[in-house]
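My main concern about presentation is that the manuscript never shows what a single data entry looks like. Each protein is reduced to its one-letter sequence and a matching series of backbone shape codes. For the editor and my fellow referees, an illustration may be useful. For illustration, here is how one protein appears when written out as sequence plus structure tokens:
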Amino acid sequence: MRCTRTPWFNGWGFNLPRGQSLLDKWNLIPEGLDILMTHGPPLGFRDWVPKELQRVGCVELLNTVQRRVRPKLHVFGGIHEGYGIMTDGYTTYINASTCTVSFQPTNPPIIFDLPNPQGS
């Protein structure tokens, strides 16, 4: 799996401006993955930041995940407030941040099972 820089949020680490330059990085993600791991979330999935009153996920990443890569699981954790699980009916999105918004490492681990591929 190739590494990318994400998210775009309050000038913190892993930043790359939204738009074509970021989409070019997401386009390096190969198709056919079962599990995709990124630092930040796609737009609309466990990305709400109450203090900012906005979603901070990446729309380019959302389009990459839902239209091209289509992994079974997408795991991230960069937005601590979004800890938890969601699905779009195909991909399960897991914000596995171990830290709370105040950087306390108290969120319990999220454990999941991924079925073995047929014929394995």
Remarks:
- The beta strands are 35-37, 48-49, 54-55, 73-76, 84-87, 92-95.
